[in-house]
Amino acid sequence: MIKRTILLVILAAIILARTSYAQTQTLPDPCNSLYSGALQNTFGALSTASTYKGLIGYSMLIILSVLMIVAFLYAIGMAFKINSLISFSRNEILENVLNFILILFVAGGIAGIDGVVIVIARFGASVVSTNQPSITNTASLYHSACEYYYGDALGEISNLISLAVEIFEISIASSIQFNLMPNGFGVTFQPFAWLNLLSKMASSFSVPIVAITGIELVNVYLLAIIYYIFPLFLYLGILFRTFPWTRAIGGALLGLFISFYVFYPALIYAISSITASIQDSARSIITTHEINLQINVFTSSLTSSIKPGLDIQTIFWSLIIEYIGIIAIGGINTIGILISLVICFDLIEAFGDLLGAPSLTHGGVLKKVI
Amino acid sequence: MQECVNSINNFLTAPYTAWFPITLVAATLIIVILAVVYLLAPLVGRDDIKRNIGIMIYQTLFSIVLILAFGMFATWLCSFNVEGLLQNLNLILVNIPSGVHIPYGGNLYETALYDLYWFTNYGALANTNFFLSLVYYLLNIGPQLSLEINFIPGVQTLGFSAKGSFSLSNVLDSYIGYINDAISWLFIVNDLQFIIISAAPIIFAIFVSIGLIARIFGFSRSFGGSLIALGVGIGFVYPLMVSITYGFINVAYSQLIANMLPNVAANTFGTSIQSALVNLLTGKALPNAILSIIYDIINIAGFTATASLILPLLNFIVVNTFVLDFSQAFGERLDFMSLLTSII
Question: Do B145 and A172 touch (CB under 8 A)?
C-alpha cells in the first residue's frame, strides 16, 4: 500500500512537472511579445508602414481630384477675371504639388524612416561605450529601449523587496529585550531600540523607488502605444494636408508622428546608453556600501549601544548612501525619460511652425499637457 | 445604430427644430437680397459693394453646400460599418466571454462605446482593480518570528526575548495605496469619457447644425465655423480616436493576460522536470509563485496606468489640435483645452 502511494506521488509529480514544462514555451517577457512575439503578429499591419500602401494610393487619387477641381476653379477665375479665385487656385496647385512630392517621398522612403531612426539612435549612443544590443531596424530599437526600462523597473521592485527584508532584520534586532524582573519587579533592557529609527528611515525610501518604477513602466507601454498607433498619424497627416481646410491638422499630425515615432525612441535609446554606462560605476560604489552595511549592522551595533553616536553614524551613513544610490540609478533613467519628452514636445512646436499647424505653434503644448 | 440615426434625424426633422427647410429658405432669401443689391450697386456707381456682395453670395452658396454635405455625412456616419473595418486591422476584441454584446457591423459610436466599456468593466482597468486586492492579501502574508529564552523555566520575566513580523506590506503599503488612489482617479477619467462618447452623436448633430445655420449670416460666420469645428472634433474625431486607441489596448491586453498564467507556472516550477521536482521538494515553489504573481500584477498595473493615463491625454490632444486648426480654417480660433484649463 505504501509502495503504491509512493509510486502514485512520484507519478503525479512527473505529470505536474511535464505540465509545467509544456507551459514554459510561452515567453514571459512583455518586450518580446510586444516587438517580436504575438503582438507583433497581431498588429503587424499597424506598425509596418508598407501595409498602408493602399492609403498612399488613395491619398494620391484625392490629390489628383483636388488638382482637377482647383484647375477648374483657376479656369473660371481666368474666364471671369476673378483675381482672388486665381490666386487661391495658384496657391492650392502649389500646395498639392508639394503634397504630391511629400507622398512620393513617404512612399519611397518608408524604409528611410527606419534609417533616420537608427542613425539618430546610433549617433546618440556613439558618445559612450555601451553594452546594449546593436540596432538594425525600428522594431529592434523599440525592443532594446523596452528591455532596458522594463529590466530597470523590475530591478526597482526587487530593491523594494530587499528593503522589506532589511526592515524585517532591523525590526528583529530592535525588539531584542533582556528582562530582569524575577518577581514582576525589576528592569528590562532593549539595547537596539534605536534601530527603529533606521527602520523608519529605510521605509521612507520606498516612496521614490515606487515613483521611479511607475514612470519606467509607463515608458515601456508608452513606447508600445507610439510604435503601433502613431504610424496612422503619418498617413492621416498626408491625407489631411491635401485639403485646404484640413491642411493645418495634417501638419499637426505629421509633427506628432515625426517627434514621437522617430525622435522619442531614438532619444530614449541614446539616453539609456549614457545612463547605462553611469549605472555600472554607481552600482559598484553601492555594492561596497551594502557590504559595509551588512557587516556593520550586527557586529558594530553592540558596541554602538555601548559607545552611542560612534558606530551608529557609520551605519546611518551607509544606509543613506546605499538607498540614495539605488534611487539615483533609477532617477537617472527617469530624468532621461523626462528630458526626452521635453525635447519631443519642443520638436512638435518646431514642426508645427514648419508645417503650418497653428495648434502647435507658440502653443506651449508641453505646458498644456503638464 | 438606430439611436444614433434617431438622435440626428430627430434633430433634422422634429417640428420644433425644423431648421433644415428654414435654413434653406433663409439662405435662398439672403441670396435673392444679395443678388438685388449686386444688380443695383453698379447703378449707383459702387463697384466695391458689388465685389463684396459677390463674395458674400459665394459664402452663402458654400453654406448651402455645407448643409447638404453635412446631411449626407451624418447619414453615412450612422450607417458605416466601422466595427468591420477595425476588425480587419485587429483593433476589435472579439474573443470574449459570453454575455457581452459585440457590436458586429456597428457604427463609430457603438464601436467606441464598446471598446471603452470593455476596457473599464472587463479589461485592464477592471482586472487591475481585482488583482490589487489579491496583491494586498499576498503582501500581508508573511512569517512572524518569535524567540524567548527564560533563565528559570516558567518565569517569563527573567530572560531574553526577541520577535519580529515579516510582511512585504510594511514597505509596499504605500505602493498599493498609490495604485489604489490612481485606479480611483482612472475610473473617474474613463467614466467621464463614457459621458462624452454617449453624448457624441447629439453633440455632433447640435453643434454642427447650429454652426451651419450661423455660417449663413455674415455677422455670425466665424462663430458658426468654430461650432462646426467643435462639433466635428467631439462628435467625430474623438469617437474615432477612442475606437482606435482603446481597441488596440483591449487586444494587446488580452494577449498580455493570456501570457500571465503560463509565466507564473514557469517561474514557479522552472523549465524542466528536474527543476519542477526540486522546487516542489525544497519548498521554493511557493515563494517563487508569490514573487512571480507580484511581478506580473505590477506589470499589468503599469500597463493599465499607461493606457488609462496616456490614451485620454492623446485623444484629447488630437481632438484639441483638430478643433484648433479646423476652427481657424472655418471661423474663429477655438482653443477649448485652454479654456478648460483656465476654468479648472
Answer: yes
Cβ contact, residue pair A165, B321, below 8 Å: no
Q: Does the beta carbon of B317 lie under 8 angstroms from any beta carbon of chain A?
A: yes
Do A248 and A128 belong together in one domain?
A: yes
Do A104 and A121 lie in one domain? The reply is: no
Q: How do residues B21-52 score in pLDDT, each as one tens digit?
A: 777 777 788 888 888 888 888 777 777 777 77
Cell of A354: 514648419
| Cα–Cα distances in angstroms (integers) from residue A72 to residues A100, A155, B57, B59, B62, in the given order | 19, 65, 19, 18, 17
Distances (CA, A) of B233 to B11, B15, B326: 19, 27, 9
Do the chains contact at B305 and A224, CB–CB below 8 Å? no
Chain B residues lying within 8 Å of A172, measured CB to CB: 145, 162-164
How many domains are contained in chain A?
2
Q: What counts of helices (H) and strands (E) characterise chain B?
A: 13, 2
Which chain B residue is nearest to residue A42, measuring alpha carbons?
B90
The reply to whether residue A360 touches residue B245, judged by beta carbons under 8 angstroms, is: no
pLDDT value at A250 more than 70: yes
pLDDT at A46: 65
**Does residue B326 belong to the interface with chain A, where contact is any CB pair within 8 Å?**
yes
Grouping H, G, I as helix, E, B as strand and the rest as coil, residue B22 is: helix
Distance in Å, alpha carbon of B275 to nearest chain A alpha carbon: 8
Range of the domain at A67: 49-108
The side-by-side arrangement of strands in the sheet containing B144-150 is: A187-189, A177-180, B158-165, B144-150
Tally A–B CB contacts below 8 A.
230
Assess whether A222 and A319 both reside in one domain. Answer: yes
Reported as a single tens digit per residue, the pLDDT across B233-259 is: 999 999 999 999 999 999 888 888 887
- pLDDT at position A223 is 92
Q: Which of A82, A108, A134 is the last residue of a domain?
A: A108
Q: pLDDT tens digit string along B99-113?
A: 667 777 788 888 998
Average pLDDT, chain B: 77
- ipTM score of complex: 0.78
Residue A37 maps to a domain: no
Question: What is the pLDDT at residue B15?
Answer: 40
Please tell me the distance from the alpha carbon of residue B74 to that of residue B69, in angstroms, as a whole number.
8
10 Å CB burial of residue B195 (0-12, 13-18, 19+) is: exposed
B181/chain A closest Cα distance in angstroms: 14
Mean pLDDT of chain A: 72
Residue of B nearest to A17 (CA): B273
Cross-chain Cβ contact B160/A27 below 8 Å? no
- Same domain, yes or no, for A70 and A219? no
Model pLDDT for residues A100-148, shown as the tens digit of each residue:
776 666 666 555 556 666 666 666 666 555 556 667 777 888 888 888 8
Tell whether B65 is within 8 A of chain A (Cβ): no
Q: Both A173 and A317 in a single domain?
A: yes
